[in-house]
Structure formats: C-alpha cells, structure tokens
Amino acid sequence: MRTFAGDLYLLVAAYGLALPVSYARLPVLGQGAFVAVGAFGTLLLAAHGTPLLIAVATAAAIAAVSGYLMGFAATRLAGASLALATWAVAWLAYVVLVQFPRVSGGSQGLTHASPARLLSASLGLTVTLHPWVHVLVAGGISVLMAAVLCHSASGPWGLDWAALRTGPTLADSLGVPVQRRRRALLAASGALGAIGGAGTAILIGVAAPADYSPLLSLQLFVAVLIGGTANWWGPMVGVALLAALPSTADNLASAMGVDALRVRAVLTAALLVLALVLRRPAADVLRRLTARWRRPPAVTYDDTETAAQADVPRGATVLQLEGVEARYAGVIALSDVDVSVRAGEVHALVGPNGSGKSTVLRVATGVLAPSRGRVTMSNGRPAPRAGAAAPCVAAGVVRTIQHTALLGDLTAGVQTAVGARARERVAFAGLRHLIASPTARELTRSRQRVAAGALTAVGLHQLAAQPADRLDSADQRLLQMARALATGAPALLLDEPAAGMAATDRRRLAEVLRRLAGDGYGVLFVEHDMALVGTVADRVTVLDAGRVIASGSFAEIQQDAAVRAAYLGEVAEEREPTDS
Amino acid sequence: MLAVVPVATAALLAGCGNSSSGGRSNSDSVTIVVSAPVTTSPWIADAERNGAELAATQLNAAGGVNYGGSSHHVRIDVHDNGGSPQRVVADAQTAVSEHAAALIIDGVGAKAVSDVTDPAHLPVFVVFDGGASFIDPSARPTLFRLAPADKPMAMRLADYLAAGNPKMGLITDDTGFGTDGAAAMKPAFGRDKISVVSEATVPSTASDVSSQVLAARRKGATTVVVWASAPIVAATIQATRSTGWNVPIWAGPTGEDPLVRQRLATHPSWLDNVGFVSFRITAEVGPKPFAAYRKAYEDKYGAQRINVKQNGKEVVQPPDWSMFSYDTVNLVAAALEKAGAVGAPLLSALEGKVVITGANGDERGYQPTTREGVSPDDMYFARFHGFTFAPVTDDLLSQNLPAVPQTR
Amino acid sequence: MSGGVLLQAVISGLSVGAVYGLVGLGFTLVWSLTRVLALAHGDVVVASVLVAVIAVVGRTPVASSPGVADSVLLVLLTLAAGIVVAVASYAAAVRPFLDRRHRSADVLGWVAGTVTTGLVIRTALGLALPAAAYAVPDPLHLDSVTASGVVHLPGGTTVTVRSFAVFGVAVVVALVIDWFIRRSRLGRGMRAVADDVDAAALCGVNVERVVVAAFMLAGLLAAIAALLDSPGHAVAVDSGALLGLAGAAAALLGGLGSSRGALLGGLALGVAQQLIASSTHLGASWATTLPLVVLVAVIAVRPEGLGAGRRVVVE
Fold it and tell me: Which of A240, A400, C38, C65 could bridge across to A480 with cysteines, CB 3.0–4.6 Å?
C-alpha cells in the first residue's frame, strides 16, 4: 500500500512534468528539483510548527513561483539551452542539499512522524494519514490530472498547446502567447512536482538528498517521454514502467545467473535506453492498432458554410511600412522601405534572393523590430514592439511561415480552430472549458464557425475531418492560409505560398487569393513565380538589396529598367535559406 | 499494442524480485533483513552483507538457531537501499511484514526507521555509520549500533594526543563524516586544552590541499589531524610530506582505507609518522579469534588486495568492517535462543541479557539503557610502518593488542 | 589570504581550469557542428582513463610509476578509449535524433539519450570498480619530474609539477586544435559545417564524416584531460557527471562555438573555484557548487554564452 502510494505521488510529479515536456515539447530535465522543493520545503516548515497542509501549500507555491521564473529564463532559450539549464538546476539542487546539511538534514535527511496526523483544534478533529489516505489523495490528483488533460485536448488549452509543441515560431505567428503559456505550464509543473515530493516525504516520514539526485529528474523525464506526445494516459504508462524497472532488472539478472543487486543499476540504465529507443516504434504500432477505435471528429463542414469575411472597410490601409530600416546583428537588411497593403487588394513582394522580402514580413509582424521607420497595423496603431508576432496578430496582421508546419496529425478543422483562438477575448477560457460553462460552450461553437468559414475561404471545407498529415502538400499550404485567416486579422502576409505547388495547384491558389481580396482581406505575398504574380497581384513591390526599387502594377514593373537589371542573371531561382 | 506488452510483463515480474541467500522461507526459518547501499556505495554494502551472510552460513551449518521448540534456518534477505532513507524505511516495512528477527542497516535512514520498527519491536542494527545524531535509547528504543561511534573515537584521539601538548592543525572535508567529525573533535580538543591553531574544510573532490597544509605549518602546528574521506587523507599526507614537513599526522578510521596506501604507492616513507584511530581488530585475548574469522571470511570471499608490496610480500587489508554485521547476526541468534520468539521478547533479551564473543574476541552485547555496542575502550590507535599498520605502544588500551598480519 | 597562498590557489586553479577547458573544448566542438549538447561528455573523460587502467593494470590500481611498455600502452589505450566511447555515445544517443543535415532535430530524444548514456557509462564502470575512489597510475611520469613531485614557490608555498604540466599541455593542445580547425582540410570542413551545413554539403563536404571526426576529436580531448589530471587525485567512478557540467560552464563562459573561449572560460572558472575553496569565508561547499551556479546564471542571461554576441531567436 505504501509503495503504491509512493508510486502514485511519483505519478503526480510525472503529470506535472508532462505539461511542459509532452504537451509543449520543452526539454525540462529538472523536475527532481521541484520535487525536492516540495519535500524539503514541507518538512522544514512542518519542523518549525507550520500546520502540515499549509506547509504543503506553501512549498507548492514556492515551486510554482520558481517554475514561473524558470519560464522567464526559458523565453530566451532554444530547446537545447533549456535542457542544459534545467539539467544544471537538477544538479544544483542536489549538490546544494548535499553540501548544506543544515537545510537538508545531511545523509539522514529531515524526518517527520509517520504516519502523520492532521490536527484541527477548532474542530477537535484528528485525521491520521494512513497509507490508504495517501493512495486516495495521490490517486485523486492523478485521476483529476488525467481528466483535465483528456478534456482540455479539445479546448482552448489543448489548441494552444498543440501550436506550442509544433514550434514556438508557428505558435507565435498564429497569435498564441507563447511565453505566457510556457510560464504557466512550468509553474503548474513545479507545483505538481512539489505536491508529489511533499506527499512522498509525509508518507514515508523522511526526505534526504539521496532521494532527490538528478537520477530522479532523469527517470521522470524518460517516463514522460515513454508516455508519448500529449496523451492523457502517457504518464501512467511511463511511471508503471519505471516502477517495474528494478524488479525487471532483477529478474533479468537472475535469468542471466548474476548477482541481481550488483547489476541492478546498470541494467536499469540499459532498460531506460531501451525504452527510449523503442518509444517511437511502439507508439507507431499502438497508433495503427487503435486507429479503428478512434472517434472521427464530430464536426464536418459542407458547402453551405459562408466563407470568412474581413471586417474592415474596402480600401482601408491594413498595413503600412514607412521608411523602415532593419538590421541583423548590425548588418543593414532593409533601408527606407515603404510598403502598404489595402483591404481588398493582393500585393506581391518580389525580388532576388536575399533582397529582404522575408525580412519585410518579419518586421511587419513584430518578430524583428525596425531600427528606423514606422509600422502601422490594421487598427491604425503603431506595431507593438514585443519581439513576438502574437501582439501583431491581435492588431490585425498575421503571416504564414515559409516552410509547411503542421500541428502534428490534428485534423484540418482542429488546426484551423487553433488560429481562431487568436480572436477570442474571454478570460480563463481554459478553466471555463473544463467546467463546461455556458460561455465556454458558446465560445466553442463560435470557434467552429470561424474555422469553418476560414476553411471554406480556401476551399478545404470538405477536408475538415482529415488529419492534416494526410493532405497533399498543396492542401497543406492552403490549410496554413486557413489557419491564418481564422485569426481574424485583415492583413494576411504569405511567405511563398506557392512553393512546391504544381501548375494546377497554383491556379487554385490564384483563385483563392483573388477570392480573399474580394472578401475584403489585404494580402501581401512573397513570390518568385512571375506568372502567378502577374495573374493575381493588383500591385507589385520589387526589392533589391534591402531597398524598394520599384512599385506599381505588374505591367508598370515589367517596364522598369531597374527591375530588369536586378533580375538579369536570375535564371535558376533557389529557395531562400530558411529564415525561421 | 507493443507499448502495453512491456508494461504487462513488467507488472507480472514486479511482485517477485528480491535477492536472498537462503532459499527457504517457511515456518522453520528466521529472517534477518540487510538493507545496504549496493548500487551507490558497494564498498560499504559488501562488508555489510558478506559479514551477515558468513554468520548465517556458519549458524546454518551448525544446525540453525534453536528457539520456540524447533531449529530455525537463518535467512539473510539483502535489499539495495541506494543510499536513500526512504528506501530504508521501505525495507524496514518489508522486515516487519516478513516477521524478520532484525534489520541490519549501514546507518542511512537510522533516524527515520523507528516510526516503523518501534511499534513492531523490530531491533535495528547500524553497522557502519558512526554519526552522533541518531542513537537515542529513549526516543528510538529499537535502534542499536554495532559500529564505532565517531564522537568517542574523536575524544579518545584528543585524550591520546593531549599528552604531547600539541598545537593542532585540523583538516576536515565537506562529507557528512567530515562535518560530524569536526563537530565532535572541537569540543574534545577544548576539553583537553589542546590549542587548535588552524582549521580548514576542503571539498571532498579536492586534489590538492597544500594551501590548507601550509596554513597549518605557518601557524606553527605540531600535529595535523585529518578527519575526512580517504582521498583527502591521502592528499593531506601527500601535501605534507612532499614539502618535507614530517609532522605527525593522525586520521580517523578512514586512515586504514586501502585507497590511502594506493595513492601513496610510490612513497611508502611518507606514511611514517602517520597514524589513525579506529576500532580494534584484535583484543587482549590474543590474535586467534580474529584469525579464525578472517580465514573463514577470506575462504569465502577472497582477501582484499591493496596491490602494494612490503618487503617483497603482497599487502592485504584485514576484513575488519564486516565483523560488525557478522557479530550482529550471531548476537541476534543468541538472543533468539534466549528469548524464544522474535519481536518484544527478542528486544528484551538484547537489553542486557545476552553477551557473545565477537569475531575479534571482544564481548558484544548491550546494557538495558545503552544502544552502543562498541565501547570507547574498544577503540585503539595504530601507526603505519611502511604499508602495514600496527597498534601504537604508548597507549594503555592499544599497546597490548596483537598486530594483525597484513602481508602474504 | 597571504600572497603565497594566493599564488598557489591561482596556479592550482589554472590547472583545474585547464581540465575544465579541455572538456569544454570538446563540448563546444560538438555543439558547433550538430547543435547538440554532449551531456555525457564528462563521463567520457572518466571512462577513457578507467577503461585503460582496467585493461593494463587490473581492477586494483595504485598510483604507481609504470614501466615504459605499460606507460605507452596506458596512454594509447586511454586515447583510444576516449575516442571509442565518444563515437559510441554519438552513434547510440545522438545520431538517431539528428536530421538529414546532421543538426539537432529531436531535442527531447538526444537530451534523454545523452543523459542516459552518461548513466550507463557510470553504472557500467561501477560494476567493474566498486570502491568509492581509485588511485590511477601516472603514465606520463609527471610526479617523478622532481623527487617529491612538487615545485617550491617563493613564500614557502608549493605547487605540484602536475599543475604546470596540465596547464601547459592544455594550452598547447588548445592552440593546436585552434590551428587544426583553421588550417587543416578536415578543420576547414568542420568550420564550413558549423557555419552553414547546407552550403558545406553542396561544396562536397562529407558532413557525416566531419561530424564523426568532431566527436572523435572531442573524445581525444577528453582522454588527454583524463591522462593529465586523473593521476593527481583519487578518481571516483561517478565524478564525470559534475566534471561534464563544469566543462559546459567553461564552454558557455567563453561563448559556445569558440575554442579559445572554452579554454579561457575553463581557466577563469578553475581559478575562481580555487580562490573560493581557499578563502576562509566561503570555503568548500561554495567551491563545489560554483560551476553549477555559473552554468545556470550564464544560460539565464545569455543562452549561447558570454562570448557570443548573437542573440538566439526562438528556436
């Protein structure tokens, strides 16, 4: 019973770690540090006379705040640095505990009477925390977490997380507040880790540095990885495997005829590696086997849906760059660039490789701050300078990124719904969704309407129920546009939407672009295919070496001497090096 | 479903995975649980488990333990605690549920197990850790120690050194052993009015302690005491002797650790004037008891080589630490025969009613109000002569002890 | 702290730091080419020398001065073991998680892979070497340069000959590596891959071979560090993990991707650590935690290290 309760507390910590690792794909290797904060925080506070429940709550709050602060550091960290930082934190926590026995009680650790008792003088009540109480508490939290994760998958949280784990750049471009979500996940992860640690410490009545070595962080990380990506049951499978590892190693050892205790450590390590190697193939097999039981998504759209409409007056300026200069590490990439996009027109941005086309899109969507000049958004306000695209999406400017980025195997409808999240202005939408409040249900319905409209606008409404990874590459490009449309931003910036498309698909794309302009959107697109540009663009701006060398209708551009000069020799077009 | 297969297999296997030396676990056997840091500190775990298993083998060969009207086969159930108090508590739970006669631990978790073992009247024996913080007959009545406690050892050393009226340079490290030792030594030195002219704590991973040694030399220290893990003891001797400072150096029980001699393998002369305080390996009764124990131990597990030579002969380390778990099993067996049952009767028999002769010829047993099985009088001083050590001749309690052969 | 003690702390700090620098150099090399952090690199250091010691002198080593044949064998085997372990860890834990361009693709995969590889190395070594720590023979005979193995400094202080040797050799090795990367054909290939892997591949550079060569070089550096350093103190089987993190801290202090920076970062870290260790106010515990504190602090402020001017945009 006690062992089981301990495993369940480990599961609570694993559920905590699953939030950043499995749902947002952040390589967090420091969960053991949070578990230690919970254990030592609780026992230290309890030793100084704090009532037990308050001690646990305080320790969890401290861990949540540390997780939140770690999230601030993580805002600047690419995946690899976050792994190193959190691994260092795991070691730091352990080394500090070992080196400063005044905090940790040294090798004997801090102790607490076991079984612990909860006393309430006012109620005259004493509750003895027998192991079965711990099983109920830890099991309850785990089941609750599983339920929350399962139910959130289709709600606002699940949609945002799906974007987060595909890539921060993509999530940002769709208006998901990446850093806020990351911080929230890390804070929740810290709190759950601390609760797991506190629970185990109270259950067993002792916490010592040896129990919180970086091995614990590693084991939790591997357990969560084994559980797969964004599965509500993932941590359960992972922790079950983890709990079974030592005895599996023992049985393996006795089968090999060696001293089980002696080889247990190395066999356990080897089994961890094996589990890592097998996780992908196992997940594939599992997916194939369960495919037939998976519910088809409830929502499909038909032709009766109306296409999305932009809600700005025709002809209004939805994006304006005036005298923009931009630099990368001091090198000037754009100078004195003027570009404007009006509602109802398709505006093409052309130019040789490295002429600064993608940079214009990055400046226009707030990813790169201009060193000089002014950027005005759809709402008539200057661009928010945040180094992130999400605030610009809210201000009415959205872009698609150059390479195709899908949100995993989610259906086209769900992927589009992620974009639709950007226009929602409901506080605590995730929590409201959990308790199925009327507001949340209304929100879900309107989100589905928006997604349907966006899919209709690009002509994908019949494929709404298809998993996106089964669409062909042209449809995937159109799906990206639908996701951007769903955000509700009237200025639509597309980075090489036709890349990799066959001639028939390009015709479809041209139709879609014209239709979007007709529906009131202002489209700015980067393109190399002059035939496509000639077909759809109302206006063309030509960039060369970071400057605008011509602007006007396609016919005017074709006559321009400077443009001809710039394009001389530009026979074999290569793709620009990736800019994301 | 591939992912489910390992889960199911593992769950199936989960129930049945402990190592035990005896196969039988039926009613005519008696279990002693050994919780040892097998994966984290194998060198401690080996001594702990080998001693216990040797005692069990000998008891079983002699017909087992007679109590309650029948003869009982002794079963040693070894668990790996990974240096974790939480797992020691789990092992204690296993011991209680198995109705084990006793639990043997290295010392980790000693503070925490009594919540489990006190209600069950399960005696727990600490056979390695000499820390001061946990032995407490009134608060933890089931916790016994059959290992030298650090504090009386430090006090004995202070008393012994006080005669020379030295100026002391004290070097400790940041391990638990070093920290506890420093805490025990300082009051002991104060009581004996020994002036400590310099004291330093070094990281246990330090490779060079010459600045700490130099500080002691500058302050005019006439004796250096190093109470630290074996690598730091070796580094201190190296830093002292390589500068030509032939000051007397005294270490704690880590001084006899083979690593010290392995580190100084090319400089046997540096060990001259180096001594240590430890528990005695032989008693006044003579070398025979330990010789017999040693033969049995080395026949079963082999001798511990140090891989250095003295006078052309190979130096080996006597199996001293394993005596404590060996004695513990024998003491529990004797107490069982007296008490007739495990649990409360056994506990009461251990409290002053049973005394055995230990592996080194010393008497092992407890008074009703004590829980320390190695008295300060059982601690001795030894000095190196090349790569082997022998009891000193200027201490009353050491001079009559026979030296243990250490070459072969 | 007196002048003599200060000088001594600085010199032994330079020696400790040179080891960190060599470890950091391997770390930074691997990172430039693959954007992978070799989290098992410290364990490669310990494994290289212990594998050679087991093979040549067995499982009960002492700090002896081995004969010529044994010395040569020990040196060669250590270098070989470093290279083999580093390449094996690449094949098992890094390669499966790289993309076609040999750049980090599945971060979660190689993070878990490298960390568990370190664990496998530590536990496998622990199986063969169960004691708390081991004495390692000195195939380079640095302790026999003077009779007592130390050099007397003005002010009555002493420093081991080894300290000078570790520092000197590390600086020379770092310079050679620097030269190698700048001048040799393979080195230029490495720089090309580090700068722009696609362009390098287009120019006919065999990326796989260059990446494997980088891991081999990192393993070689680890083995050199181990050969120089480990005979000077007791070696614990599991000491590699913290050593690796200290190397990472050195690499970050000097700016990830800079080979000179890694060495300078290591030297700064080593000196700071020794000064803290010999200070009466801070002492051992703070010295032990220093590399980890530096590591966390540097990453939080500048993810690519202090020397690097570039800021990383999200992923």
Answer: A400
